[in-house]
Amino acid sequence: MKLFFLADVHGSAHYMSRALELFEKEKASYIVLLGDLLYHGPRNPFPKDYDPASVVGMLNNVREKIIAVRGNCDSDVDQMVLPFPLMSDHGSILVGNRRIFLTHGHIYSPENLPPLTKGDIFVSAHTHIPLASIHEGIYLFNPGSVALPKGGSRNSYGIFDNGDLVVKNLDGKVENRVIVPGSWI
């Protein structure tokens, strides 16, 4: 199973459209949305082509392909216009005997991990800075932000494909990677 990770869209119709093109190009099974989909947030500038209503339409067109968790900028009002579940602070995907733990990153983070087993993958966003590493046997992954990158990073997304965790920029160039060994069947 190939997963496409996307985070921190912050209402950008331009970057949401580009991300959906990349999702199709990557031929992933699901889009995993890690929060902060529609609202830009009070600490962020307006992203390019800020148009939350258009982002809603784009997401609704692929609703059957979406797995999502709530970000700190997502609200009950957002859930009213999106037909897929969005309001959980965390979730898990089980692949083989491994767990991929999903969260935005404002509650659980690499500095405040939930209880995980060695070999599990912790996926978060929130910082807008890509990450692919291992810490004490736990794989840490952050696809960065598609719309508002920070810390000198580029606009990016993430891919999980049979244990390969990759952060790519919007040109498809690999920015960061970590390989999780073992069986993923």
* Shape annotation: globular
CATH architecture: 4-Layer Sandwich
User: From N to C, what is the helix and strand string?
Assistant: EHEHEHEEEEEEEE
What is the number of E strands? 11
CATH class: Alpha Beta
Ends apart, CA distance between termini: 9 Å
Enumerate the spans where pLDDT stays under 50 for 5 or more consecutive residues.
Answer: none
* Backbone structural class: alpha/beta
Q: How much helix is in the residues? A: 10-25%
Mean pLDDT over the full residue set: 95
Rg from alpha-carbon coordinates: 15 Å
The main sheet comes to:
6 strands, mixed
Task: Tell me about this structure.
- The protein is of the alpha/beta class.
- The chain has a single domain (about 1-180), classed as Metallo-dependent phosphatases (Purple Acid Phosphatase, chain A, domain 2, 4-Layer Sandwich), CATH 3.60.21.
- Helices cover about 15% and strands about 30% of the residues.
- The protein has helices at about 15-25, 50-60, 75-80, and strands spanning about 1-5, 30-35, 65-70, 90-95, 100-105, 120-125, 130-135, 140, 155-160, 165-170, 175-180.
- A six-stranded mixed sheet has the order 3-2-1-9-10-11, covered by helices on one side. It has a five-stranded mixed sheet with strand order 4-5-6-8-7, with no helix packed on it.
- α2 links the parallel β2 (about 30-35) and β3 (about 65-70).
- The longest helix has 14 residues, at about 15-25.
- The protein is globular, with a radius of gyration of 15 Å.
